[in-house]
Write a structure and sequence with these properties.
By secondary structure, this protein is mainly alpha-helical. It has helices at 2-25, 43-76, 83-109.
Length: 110
Amino acid sequence: MSIIIIGYIVFSTFIIIYTYYYQKLNNGKPFSLKPPEINDEDEGTQVIYHTATKRIYMFYTSVIPILTAIAFLLHMVSVQINIDMVIYVLLTILVIHYLIYYKVILEYVS
């Protein structure tokens, strides 16, 4: 029970500090749904972020249905899906997400 209380205190402190600093940098909009890349005023970086976001969305729109079909097929064949497998798949997707993002940025920088 004490770990839950400590976690709540640490999380609350983090949220307060994050909101304070983010509010200073974001002109009073601490909980905007727009990512900071979209709020950037430079036209060149907007094109870079737009292209990177577009490629990442294309990646997700192809990967999510494929993974859903694979999970369904594994379920039909009676293969048990462990939580470790799910975590590894999610971490792999996350790594690929950032690789795509930085690959697009490096294409424009070089």
